[in-house]
Design goal:
alpha/beta, Rossmann fold, 2 domains, 366 residues, four-stranded mixed beta sheet
Length: 366
Amino acid sequence: MQHNNFGTEFELISIDKWHQIVDTEFRGFGGIVYSSSGSTQVSRSIIYTDNVINSAVRRTEELIRLLPFSQNSKIAILWGYGLFPPAHFYSLALSKMGHVIYPVGSGRNLPIEIATKNLHIIQPEILIGMPSYLLKLSIFMSDKGFLDSVLPSLSFIISGGEILTDALRTKLELVFKTTVFDSYGMLQAPMIAGECINKRLHISREYEAEILSDNLIKPFGHGELLLSSKYAWVPLEMKHLKTEDIVVLNNETCQCGYATPTIKILGRTTRKRKIRGQIVDINELIFNLDINGFEGKYYIELISDPTDSIIFHVAETTDSEKFHEIVQKNISFSFNIQKHTDFSVLLTKTGKIQHLIENRYVESCD
């Protein structure tokens, strides 16, 4: 048990535990089971009751009102409808508000060639999707000569599902020639925050947000975001979700006039990454390489360009066949091993081996 600044006792719940409790508690109620397509190599599902869905749609409507929607907008949603409920929530909320929704989808449920042709026909005023996929889509559309036909109708873009870095936002806005607004909170606690016209990410009024820093619960500041709610998950209203997201939580007045705390997302506490459709546990991969004699003889580079890829940089004397064999136990897609004659492992400021470097966005993708 933990205590917050007001002395109230509560339980911190991990994301995995949260899903387990939700699925167990809600199984006796009517609702919708959202299931994964299996593309991540993990078969999973979670049930949301009508109350949970209605509250998520309610928060979606709340956060949508922070943005400059025109009446009867044509909106293309570039998320699949499997284990990604926000596609459903956005569709329900926006259609209720009088907009026309086109659930175009993305990834394996709809090839990018078909998505491109659909967008050319639809001429959407708003795109909603994952930022890396949007960038990938823009490059494909440009190559096929469809991008210029879609740009004139666009009013703005809403991104979500992954961290929207400043560099990626800038690139998207340059390519699509419009403004990109971010949204946050996709699966574990849906529809947590949305950006206003000033690009400040506002927490929904239905969530109580706090920060876990140095094992202390703080009302604001830098650390892991904790969430509780009397509305999102009724059986869990006295528990706190550890989101695994590192944020800066602010309580400053925003010029848009919406009086809720705002957050800036900085990163994650875990090293699980979705790469080419597979969830890869980087810590497990590093552990397996190190115990098999490769410690200090490699480092891993993750690149989002916008198609995620992984490169293993190794010393020239490395046994490539054995290295490849170990890596294949963790990932099933193709990967690149680069040998270096002048290899030297990267070190942190404290002298520890730095196994991983990440490039969330690489300019050379043009």
